[in-house]
Specification:
129 residues
Length: 129
């Protein structure tokens, strides 16, 4: 788990710690496997814009129906912007077999690598917002 900017892997060259840190408090907590997956997707699909990465419990509780312990509070979840229905389908096709959680909204997709060990027994799972 990456918790300091100094731990940032140079292989994640298309992303910065600022893109995945909590937008409320600035805390950085992100899973390395998830970042490897996002970087691989970037190299395959082209530019990706992260709209939400890690969220502290307070921030998640304020903006999400999942409350203070939602997927983003684990550092193993990211939301990626979708600019069109074609881009949304491309992202879904790419991540469907690579993630344990896949949420689909009009303007973004949510992906996560959560398991029962993380307290998320309903995995694999997919949903529509």
């Amino acid at each position: 788990m990456i918790t300091e900017k100094e731990q940032w892997n140079e292989e994640w060259c298309n992303f910065t710690p600022d893109e995945v840190k909590c937008q409320h408090c600035g805390e950085l907590k992100i899973d390395e496997e998830l970042m490897d997956l996002i970087q691989d997707a970037r190299e395959t699909l082209g530019p990706l814009r992260i709209t939400s990465g890690y969220r502290c419990s307070e921030h998640n509780n304020n903006i999400s129906s999942t409350g203070p312990n939602g997927p983003h509070t684990t550092g193993k979840a990211i939301d990626i912007a979708t600019s069109s229905s074609q881009k949304r389908k491309e992202l879904i096709d790419y991540f469907a077999t690579k993630v344990s959680g896949l949420g689909i909204a009009k303007s973004f997709i949510h992906i996560d690598l959560l398991t029962s060990e993380d307290g998320f027994d309903a995995r694999p799972n997919s949903w529509i917002y």
